[in-house]
Design goal:
Layout lengths: L1 E5 L6 E5 L2 E2 L26 E2 L8 H24 L5 H8 L18 E4 L6 E5 L1 H10 L3 H12 L2 H6 L6
Antiparallel strand pairs: 1-2, 3-4, 5-6
């Protein structure tokens, strides 16, 4: 169910998706799967207009989708955390493109979270999801991390074997 057309960005001839998609179809590339009936179903799952402004080749479709996603993320961090335009990217670059705590996560598959102080609302840095969750679980209490350090340096099992108290 594809038609010949020109990409609205590069103007190259390509197989364009037509202006309608079907909700019931499982193959979004061809708009129909082998199990779909020859005619679109009638009823609540009938055709609806596509949500893009016009046909694009796959390369430009992916590029446009990434641009829209980045713009939406920028708007969300501006509104939620009060960052100015481009400050997320500036902070990401300042941190060397890594999580501020573990220094391993790059945010390539999932963007780094904006960590902030819940009392003041001040942004502290960018963290990967596990580290941000850890801080949330600790409720930002320094005593939690002191106990964690003590636990790692002198574990309870070792103290038990040596006959020392747990404290």
């Amino acid at each position: 169910m594809t038609t010949k057309g020109k990409c609205i960005d590069c103007k190259a001839e390509h197989e364009a998706y037509n202006a309608w998609t079907f909700r019931t179809c499982c193959d979004w590339q061809t708009l129909r799967c082998p199990q779909c009936p020859p005619e679109p179903p009638v009823g609540p799952a009938k055709a609806r207009p596509a949500n893009h402004p016009g046909p694009r080749c796959a390369t430009h479709h992916r590029r446009r989708k990434a641009e829209v996603k980045a713009a939406n993320h920028e708007k969300r961090v501006q509104k939620t955390y009060g960052l100015k335009k481009g400050e997320y990217a500036q902070l990401y670059k300042f941190q060397g493109g890594l999580c501020a705590l573990c220094r391993r996560a790059t945010g390539a598959s999932r963007r780094l979270s904006v960590d902030h102080d819940h009392d003041t609302g001040d942004v502290r840095g960018l963290l990967c999801r596990p580290d941000n969750t850890l801080l949330g679980h600790a409720r930002d209490k320094i005593e939690f991390f002191k106990r964690a350090i003590a636990y790692l340096e002198d574990p309870p099992f070792k103290r038990m074997e040596e006959g020392r108290d747990f404290e």
